[in-house]
Amino acid sequence: MCAGFELPDWNSLAGQEDDALPLLGAALLIARDEYPQLDADLYDSLLQSHADALRERIDAIEPLPLKMQAINRHLFEELGYAGNREEYYDPRNSYLNEVFERRLGNPISLALVHMEVAHRLGLPLDGVSFPGHFLVRLSVGDGMLVMDPFNRGRPLDEDELRQRASPHLGGELPDDEALYRILHPASHRAILMRMLRNLHGVYADRDDWERAVRCADRILTLAPDNAEALRDRGLGYFKLGHRHGARHDLGRYLQLHPQAADAGTLRERVVELSSGSARPN
């Protein structure tokens, strides 16, 4: 009898090398925080069925771009995976079990499905933590094929990539060197942290501070000294009235980034927390 798909333990993740982190398993761990009865084996088997349905077709194709074209057709046309444009900030777009069930997701969750299926078919598809919108890339000869899973795996040329990056670079178009750096493959840790930051942002905007704190806490499990997550968890603790936790996290953030743009405001907050005068607003 085959063993089922086992999820890793959260506490084991911080000490693992970035790319040794089990991407699918850790992404399902994130989902299990919200869905405690999640059946990880079911979703691993579903991914395997996607790959198995393609294997004969992929093996018969030689050029890598055409292999990816076949994968894209199966995932985004035959199976119907799609970007959720109407409810982009629905938290379900970030939870893989919901992405599998609803065939709807955001750029990074769809990229993870894309990557997992490609890997099971022998294609080393990487994630790209592109500014604003997560992408995927496949090395092809001396170049790379960059695709957008949120838009049915559509290939992106250099001009479009420069235009997409420009608003996040002060309006400047990146030169070849800058674009190459932006397109560097994202580590598994970076992918998981970006998924959690997306969720934190959604929950913070909804004033759902318990879930927002949970997401920041999970980031700190992956990267214990991540300053942004310390600040976010500290502010969430403050909103929840957990004064000691707020004071500790904000103080640690200020130790790590004493010259941060928000350092003055947060120092005042820490002083208020220490004196007992601070109140959530």
Which tags fit this structure?
281 residues; alpha+beta; C8orf32 fold; Serine Threonine Protein Phosphatase 5, Tetratricopeptide repeat; two-stranded parallel sheet; 12 helices; 6 strands; 56% helix; 7% strand; globular; TPR_rpt; TPR-like_helical_dom_sf; Protein SirB1 N-terminal domain-containing protein; SirB1_N
Could you characterize the architecture of this molecule?
The protein has about 280 residues and is α+β, with helices and mostly antiparallel strands. It folds into 2 domains: about 15-180, Roll (C8orf32 fold); about 190-275, Alpha Horseshoe (Serine Threonine Protein Phosphatase 5, Tetratricopeptide repeat), CATH 1.25.40.10. The chain has 12 helices and 6 strands. The protein has helices spanning about 25-35, 40-60, 65-80, 95-100, 105-120, 160-165, 175-180, 190-205, 210-220, 225-240, 245-255, 265-275, and strands at about 80-85, 105, 125-130, 135-140, 145-150, 155. The strands form 2 sheets. The protein has a 4-stranded antiparallel β-sheet. A two-stranded parallel sheet has the order 1-2. Strand 4 (about 135-140) and strand 5 (about 145-150) form a beta hairpin. The longest helix has 20 residues, at about 40-60. It is globular and about 70 Å long. The mean pLDDT is about 95.
Gist of the model:
This protein is 56% helix and 7% strand. By secondary structure, it is an alpha+beta fold. Helix 2 (40-59) crosses helix 3 (64-78), helix 9 (209-222) packs antiparallel against helix 10 and helix 10 (227-240) packs antiparallel against helix 11.
